[in-house]
Write a structure and sequence with these properties.
By secondary structure, this protein is mainly alpha-helical. It contains 20 helices and no strands. Helix 3 packs antiparallel against helix 20 and helix 4 packs antiparallel against helix 18.
Amino acid sequence: MNLQTNKRYILVVLLFFHTVNTYMDRICISAASELIKSDLGISNQMMGYIFGIFAFGYALFQIPSGYLADYYGPKKLLSAVVLVWSSLTALTGAAWNAASMLVMRFLFGVGEAGAFPGATRAFYNWIPARERGLANGIFHSGARVGAAMSLFLMPFLIKLVGWRATFLICGLLGIVWVIIWNFWFKNMPRQNKNVSESELNYIEGGIAEIKQENEKLSLAVVLTSSNMLLLMFQYMASNITFFISFTWLLPYLISQWGMGAEVYAPIPLLCGTFAQWFAGWLSTKIYSMGFPVSSRKIPAIAGFLIAVVGLMLIVTVGGSTPLAFALLFSLAVFGVEMTISPSWSVCMDIGKEKSGTISATMNMLGNIGSAFSAIIFPFFVANITIPRLVVSTGTANSFFVFAACINLMAALSWVFISPVKMLGVLSQKQALRRLIIFFIVVFITATALLLYKFLN
């Protein structure tokens, strides 16, 4: 059978549209916010609470969703969560006051928490190790495509049919995806009668290509290993830079260069899309040359170093025009987006049958980085200077220096991250104690950041 036309690529396409849908549903409320405030009599402060409460549900249910994906399988998990959040997206159009909107957006966040861990678990079952880089690159680029599309399409759709009908349409698109998913997908490729024996052998042999010396370690040991802690740190670092694209980039462009500058806001998202495809291709190419560990390390290290260059160019060369600034920031985004595919691939490499839980934990820490970025960005603009580099306030240059330093540390962390690194063996009591401490620290940090973001 010609492996280039294998059925596993249908899964990649399905999950690409899954993540496109995920981000279209997220961006929809931002595009409709002014009309929602007017129709429901909601203040700016309350609208901020409505935006923020999504983050509570999304962050707090990452790990439970990952565990459920591992326990029940990705078919049931993704069917359930996409049906839940699509229904809540449609119901958002029926909101009658602020309280109803708050409840629906919190539950929407709970539903979306399972989107990426569930998809990661499906990839582990279906995608050989050598192809995980490209598969993850295509899959995660859907988030950037969905966000960029929404910036253009949602205002037009809202103007055409109104904000309530727009939410209904977005919700129905998700339900259509669930129907297709249930019709085609099976948890294991051997359960799908349309997959040939040659492809099954290729998938099953490829899954076992990356081996660790002690594969049967407990989840507690894996989650609290230095390997995993470094992986979570670098994912936080990439989110600190990238999520400015979703939060402060548009208002910053307007504040620095006036109305009209916002037209350049989608450029970093489009660059991020190409970066994901390029990094996925590069990872697969290096793997095929016989370097499985380097296939994860090289794209990630190169990506963080490119991000450092882009951020420091903003500071040293400066953006005299909004286009120049957007292009330099896009270079930084291109760099950090090159790290996404290797990050999620390593989660599968070391997580294996626990890939859902492992990836969910990394994603939760990434969202802490996103919240942290959103909180400190305006503080840096208003208050922070750096001798010789940033001599006055009023620009985000001090934040970009900070982000460049974090990205440089993240590049260094990839020197020590490895999908085949041997982990230390702990007793059951030691592992449990370490896991409890880990979750307490994560919970306190996440709650503090989200409460600050929600209440300010």
